[in-house]
From TrEMBL:
GO terms for molecular function: calcium ion binding. It comes from Edaphochlamys debaryana. It comes from the Eukaryota. Residues 43-78 form the EF-hand domain. This is EF-hand domain-containing protein. Keywords: Membrane, Transmembrane, Transmembrane helix. The chain crosses the membrane at residues 84-111.
Length: 253
C-alpha cells in the first residue's frame, strides 16, 4: 500500500515537470530616481538654483533635509542682521538729530544770554529797560550838542559842519521863470566891492524887469543890475551901484 502511494507521487511530479513552460517577461523601463525629503535643484528657476547650489555640499544636485536646515538658518540670520541694520540706522539718525538740536539750542541760549537788546511793543529797546535803541557812529560823537570827530584831544576836535546844496544863478536876461520861482535869497555886489543880500518872498516879471519882493521892500532888477528899490531896502542899499545880482537857489527837500 505504501509502495503504491510513493509510485503515484513520483509519477505526478514527473508529469508536472513536463508541463512547466518558462515564458520570458518583457523588460520594464527604469523608473526615475526619487529621493524623499529632498529638493532637486535642476527643476528650479535660475535665481533659486544660484542660491541653493551654494548649500549643496555633496554636489549631487539635491538639497536634502540637513542642507535645507542650513538654508533656513542662513535666511533667519540674514533677516535678523537686516533688522539689526535698520535699528542701528534709526538709532544713529536719532542721535544725529539730537546732537544737532542740542548744538543749535545751546548756541541760541548763549546768544540770547549775551544779547543787549530786546523787542517790546514792536520797538527795539535796550535789554531790561524801556529805552529805545540808539545808533552810534564809530567816526563821530556828540559833544556840547555839536557833532565832532572821535579821537584826538579835546582842544583839537573840530566841529563837523553840514553843507547845503545850493546853486547860484546870475539874474540876467537868461534867467528862467522856474529858476525865479526857486529863489530863496539874492546876493548883491557893487562896483566898489560892497555886498548885501536879502531873502526873497516873491517875484514878478514885467517889461523885461524882475520885481523881487522881500520882507522890507522891493528891488527891481534889469539886465543883471539893480535899477531901483523901495521900502527899508532902499535905505539899506543906499546909493551904491549894484551891478552884480546873483540869485541863490536851494533845492526843496
Amino acid at each position: 500500500m505504501a509502495l503504491a502511494r510513493e509510485l503515484s507521487v513520483r509519477e505526478s511530479k514527473r508529469n508536472s515537470k513536463k508541463a512547466l513552460v518558462v515564458v520570458p517577461m518583457p523588460s520594464l523601463p527604469k523608473l526615475a530616481e526619487h529621493r524623499s525629503g529632498s529638493i532637486q535643484i535642476k527643476g528650479l528657476d535660475v535665481e533659486a538654483r544660484k542660491i541653493l547650489e551654494k548649500f549643496d555640499a555633496d554636489g549631487d544636485g539635491y538639497v536634502d533635509t540637513e542642507e535645507l536646515g542650513i538654508v533656513v538658518a542662513e535666511l533667519v540670520k540674514t533677516k535678523f542682521k537686516g533688522r539689526l541694520y535698520l535699528w542701528g540706522l534709526a538709532a544713529i539718525t536719532f542721535a544725529l538729530v539730537m546732537i544737532l538740536g542740542c548744538g543749535f539750542g545751546l548756541t541760541w541760549a548763549v546768544l540770547m544770554a549775551n544779547k543787549d537788546t530786546s523787542v517790546k511793543n514792536n520797538i527795539w529797546v535796550v535789554r531790561g529797560t524801556d529805552d529805545p535803541l540808539r545808533a552810534a557812529s564809530s567816526s563821530y560823537t556828540v559833544r556840547n550838542n555839536v557833532m565832532v570827530p572821535r579821537g584826538g584831544s579835546a582842544t583839537s576836535r573840530l566841529a563837523v559842519s553840514t553843507a547845503t546844496l545850493t546853486r547860484r544863478v546870475p539874474l540876467g536876461a537868461n534867467v528862467t521863470t522856474a529858476e525865479l520861482a526857486a529863489l530863496t535869497r539874492v546876493h548883491l555886489k557893487s562896483s566898489s566891492g560892497a555886498e548885501a543880500g536879502f531873502v526873497v518872498t516873491g517875484f514878478q516879471e514885467q517889461a523885461g524887469q524882475i520885481y523881487l519882493n522881500a520882507m522890507y521892500g522891493t528891488v527891481v532888477v534889469k539886465q543883471g543890475q539893480v535899477v531901483s528899490s523901495s521900502g527899508k531896502l532902499a535905505s539899506i542899499l543906499g546909493d551904491f551901484t549894484w551891478n552884480e545880482v546873483t540869485g541863490i537857489i536851494t533845492p526843496s527837500s
